[in-house]
Automatic annotation (TrEMBL):
It is found in: Cytoplasm. The gene is HYKK. This is Hydroxylysine kinase. It holds the Pfam family APH. It comes from the Eukaryota. InterPro entries: Aminoglycoside_PTrfase, Kinase-like_dom_sf, Pseudomonas-type_ThrB. GO terms for molecular function: hydroxylysine kinase activity. It comes from Ficedula albicollis (Collared flycatcher). Its main location: cytoplasm.
Length: 378
């Protein structure tokens, strides 16, 4: 959802193609005739859901990257190669349909005027399923998301090789969890209130207790944005009281960067808390799934509370900054931030020890008996 090394949203560089232009682009670049096209939600880029009239009813996502990020082809290549690698490894990630010239992406002009902006264009396979944001999560799917997050980072870090991978060292990229201290420059956007006081505490504690420990954490490549709109699920069981979910899609690799295994589980916990009816219960299940693949070290576990809080702070501060820059989006951003503020405040009211106890006791229970495996199938 984010771009560049700062936190300027890309509204000025966001592509604005109409459906007809997008359909023509698919024909010109990929040689496919579009039979139906519709817009998909997007933040920085433009995304279209496309059906083509080839043999069978094939569906794709036309992803038109904003003009600023399009100037970093190596980074887009690394993201796309990672998706292809993961798909080949059996993960539910999209793969690119090749251009007429056999490439995974193509730099295209927005229109025919000289000097017009250029956008990187990809046609990705459409993945089935419902975003996690639209279901009520249960222990089983939270565990599964944690397990998948760990397996994905592990295989990427141990086996993924491509010359473009070095572009994933993204330095001061604002969404990398190591960069929570950079929020200092945007915190003005919160005004003076109790929210700001908590975020200041998060940043200070992060600087004092997490930053000095980073070198002891295990480094890896992070997806970096396992939010409830970037994970698709489908239900393998018809029982309404006890749905069993399976992850059918992992989307949006645009925030990938080098980080640490523990970042991924912290990011997933934070986003899974947002819409949960039992937000403090979420962490233990996600952690148990993650640790079934990659048990955390004592130091990584000790940082988890501040990492989850740090991600809340990143999301809330950047949303407030964006709302000031683009007041027309303020209402949407404020509604989205409401639950986030509530959860961050609750975490701080309860305190690190009590929250950790809830998380670690739940995760511990999985090692004694497996709550997930004991759930009956259909
Ligand atoms: N390959 C896909 N298969 C199915 N649905 C997809 C696919 N890609 C995107 N979508 C749908 O479109 C939405 C937005 O896509 P995506 O997450 O890639 O972009 P984004 O978060 O808006 O970020 P950006 O604007 O930076 O691309 C997703 O949440 C999902 O609902
Ligand atoms: Mg997304």
């Amino acid at each position: 959802m984010s771009s560049g090394n700062d936190c300027q949203p890309q509204l000025l560089t966001k592509p604005t193609l109409g459906e007809r232009e997008a359909a023509e682009l698919v024909d010109r670049v990929f040689g496919l005739k579009v039979s139906w096209i519709g817009s998909l939600p997007s933040y920085d880029d433009q995304n279209f859901h496309v059906r083509v009239s080839a043999a069978g009813a094939e569906e794709y996502v036309l992803k038109i990257t904003n003009s600023e990020d399009s100037q970093e082809p190596d980074l887009i290549e690394a993201q796309t190669r990672a998706m292809m690698f993961l798909s080949a490894e059996g993960f539910p990630s999209a793969t690119p349909y090749l251009t007429k010239d056999g490439h995974i992406m193509s730099l295209e002009s927005g229109d025919t005027r000289p000097g017009s902006k250029k956008y990187m264009v990809r046609l990705l396979s459409y993945l089935p399923g419902t975003p996690v944001a639209k279901i009520t999560t249960n222990a089983q799917i939270l565990y599964e998301i944690g397990r998948l997050a760990a397996s994905m980072d592990k295989v990427l870090s141990e086996k993924f090789q491509h010359p473009s991978v070095k572009s994933l060292h993204r330095g001061r990229f604002i969404w990398n969890l190591a960069n929570v201290p950079l929020l200092d420059q945007y915190i003005y956007a919160l005004g003076q209130n109790k929210h700001r006081a908590v975020v200041e505490q998060v940043i200070e504690q992060f600087k004092g207790k997490v930053i000095p420990k980073l070198s002891s954490f295990r480094a890896c490549i992070n997806h970096g944005d396992l939010n409830d709109h970037n994970i698709l699920v489908d239900s393998s069981c018809a029982s309404l009281e006890n749905p069993q979910y399976r992850v059918s899609g992992i989307l949006d690799f645009s925030d990938m960067s080098y980080g640490y295994y523990v970042f991924e589980v912290a990011i997933a916990i934070m986003y899974m808390m947002i819409e949960s009816p039992e937000p403090l219960g979420v962490g233990g299940h996600v952690l148990a799934g993650f640790e079934s693949v990659l048990p955390l070290t004592a130091e990584e576990r000790g940082a988890l509370f501040l990492l989850v809080s740090g991600r809340f702070a990143q999301s809330l501060v950047i949303a407030a900054h964006t709302a000031l820059l683009y007041p027309e989006n303020k209402e949407y951003l404020t509604i989205t931030a409401k639950a986030g503020w509530k959860h961050l405040m609750t975490m701080f009211e309860m305190g690190q020890e009590a929250v950790e106890r809830t998380w670690f006791e739940t995760a511990q229970a999985y090692t004694q008996h497996s709550p997930v495996l004991s759930v009956q199938g259909c």
